[in-house]
Amino acid sequence: MLLLLFTACLAILGAYFYRFWSTRQKRQVELQKIVDKKRAQRAESVKFAKESSEKLDKETRLKIAAMEYSELKDGLQSGKITCIDAVRTYYAKAISANEKTNSVCMFVKEAEKWAMDWDEKAKDPQFQKPPLFGLPMSLKECVPLEGYDQTRGFVQDTFRPTETDGVLVQQLKKLGAIPYVQTNVPQSLLSYNCSNPVYGTTNHPMDKTRTSGGSSGGESALISADGSLLGIGGDVGGSIRIPCAYTGTTGIKPSHLRFSHRGVCGSVPGRPLINSNDGPMSTRVETNVDFLRTVWADTWITEQDPYVPPVTWNEEAYKSDKKLKIGYYVDDGWFTPTPVCQRAVMEAKQILEDSGHTLVPFRPPRVPEVLRMFLRAVCVDAGTFLSKKLMNDIIDPLLYTQVVLWMVPVPIQRFLSSIIKVFFPRLGNLMDAMTLSTVELRNTYADIEAYRSEMAGLMVDQKIDALLCPVTVSPALPHVSPSKLFAGTSYTGIFNLLDYAAGSVNVTHVTKQDELDLEDYEESDPWYALAKKGSRGTIGFPIGVQVATPPYKEETCLRIMREIERGVTGK
User: Fold this and answer.
1) 97-142 per-position pLDDT tens digit
2) CB atoms within 10 A of CB 537
3) DSSP string covering 171-226, please?
4) I want to staple 203 with a disulfide (CB 3.0 to 4.6 A). Which of 135, 152, 208, 362 is the partner?
5) H or E stretch including 568?
6) Which helix (H) or strand (E) holds 415?
7) 52, 195, 212, 215: which is the annotated catalytic residue?
8) Binding residue per annotation — 422?
9) Mean pLDDT estimate for the chain
10) Is 236 among the annotated ligand-binding positions?
């Protein structure tokens, strides 16, 4: 009788899995057809941009292409350069960058018309040009742009164009900027590689086997490969800062309080406390400063979204010569960075001390606990939303490790955690991250609020104005590593949890000596071994540092970043 019952259960289970497998296979065929259709649409988009760029004579294109941000902006304002010539030049530059990096999702065809419309208005002698008149800007694919998809790397979300521009895009257009290209992202946005089944894998401009970071990896690759002067990324756990650090570019994640989130679809909807925010990315800190100075010049954002406080740009804070007290650390007590990342912080420390600032040792308290809180809050529902979405999609192979973790029921994760802690304590710690209940999630939100209060107290009591630390634990990694090395986001994720402003600026490059020093880097667990292995062969790769300040202190953050940049470049 028991044998018969057991056999019946096996049969039912087998039938269920066969039905599940056959349904999924059928769905995969349907999705692949959608991918083929979308890639054909992208090919048409590239063809359009190429044909448009070829309408511009080579001499003019090369002249505009060689201009720095300020030169191009001045040329557009003076009328020496037309908007359509600028757009066609950057179509050409983005096509070239895309051939090296696969960073482009779609070219914005309407950019031609917008440029021509601005040029027509400029013929009127009474016309007052807006401050970003004619400037071509690249956008991360998840930034809402009317008429274009926000797939976040999901096949199921293709051919569902956004009906309305997001508030930031509305403002960009009002200020005269021209969005001309969308850039690639990792599937789900919750990864610091940059690959999805719709548009493929974006690679580092210096090495096709390595990632440009994520989730704003398309932006960092395009900018680093000279396909854009200024772009908009987004950041919920390091998604602007890590790509910038990997590619030698610079960017800032403001506190989420300073931009509107109306109409923005994040990685997980309905997520409080851990908020994504848009931010500028470029090759120069001054470019990011000019952008934020412009968009925060008035309270227009607040007028469109009453949830954004009416805080305008503070030029006095940015231009201040007041000497600051800055806390610094090279190791957060959770994941020791590779030697070159530590060296970069110490070099930035020296630059700031030479400028007259006071640098003092500082370490955020209880980072292992903080990372566990961060992961619990960023996933909200223990990965249920993402798991369901991914199971109805083609899963990008570079996301497999994360998907497996999301698919394991939380009680089983907790049970396995108690065993794994014996031989891999750090992994065991993070396997306790996903929430078991709404009660546990509420307690986590309370813990986050308490931690924010604790950090505010520490900063005030010690009179610390800003923090200086690594961006991440290694140079740009091979494509397969980020999903296995999510523990390395502790240096960036903490500032999303705190909702601080945080930016990345390039300081140095990997040297032969750094490679030799790497041999002494201790491989005490598989994550350290992976960081060490992934860091080999990166001589010449850029290394950035991170500057962080409390909310509404973005101008101070940018001031410090600019001082570091000036100390590194001499200009």
Assistant:
1) 999 999 999 999 999 999 999 999 999 999 999 999 999 999 999 9
2) 14
3) HHHHTT-EEEEEE---TTS-SSS-EETTTEE-EETTEEEEE--SSSHHHHHHHHTT
4) 208
5) helix 554-569
6) helix 410-423
7) 215
8) no
9) 96
10) yes
Taking the domains of the chain in order of start, what are their residue ranges? Answer: 28-312+324-367+461-569
- State both tokens at 377: 């809050």
Structure tokens at 180: 């001309």
45 is an active site residue? no
Question: pLDDT tens digits, residue range 347-392?
Answer: 999 999 999 999 999 999 999 999 999 999 999 999 999 999 999 9
**Catalytic option among 52, 188, 239, 267:** 239
As a whole number of angstroms, the distance between CA 77 and CA 207 comes to 38
CA distance readout (Å), 91 to 98, 103, 135, 415 = 10, 13, 12, 53
What is the CATH architecture of 28-312+324-367+461-569? Alpha-Beta Complex (3.90)
C-alpha 429: how far from chain center: 25
Active site residue 215: yes
- pTM as predicted: 0.97
239 marked among binding-site residues: yes
228 is catalytic: no
Residue 238 is assigned to a ligand binding site: yes
Between the CA of residue 548 and those of 228, 294, 500, what are the distances in Å? 25, 21, 6
Q: Is 189 annotated as a binding residue?
A: yes
Q: What are phi and psi of 19, to 5 degrees?
A: -65, -45
What is the rounded CA–CA span in Å between residue 528 and residue 523?
5
Query: How many residues comprise the chain?
Result: 571
Query: What is the strand order of the sheet 277-282 is part of?
Result: 104-107, 178-183, 136-140, 230-235, 277-282, 250-253, 501-509, 542-549, 466-470, 325-328, 358-361
- CA torsion through residues 173, 176, 178, 182, sign: negative
If DSSP codes are grouped into helix, strand and coil, which group holds residue 562?
helix
One-letter amino acid identity for 155? V
The amino acid occupying position 258 is R
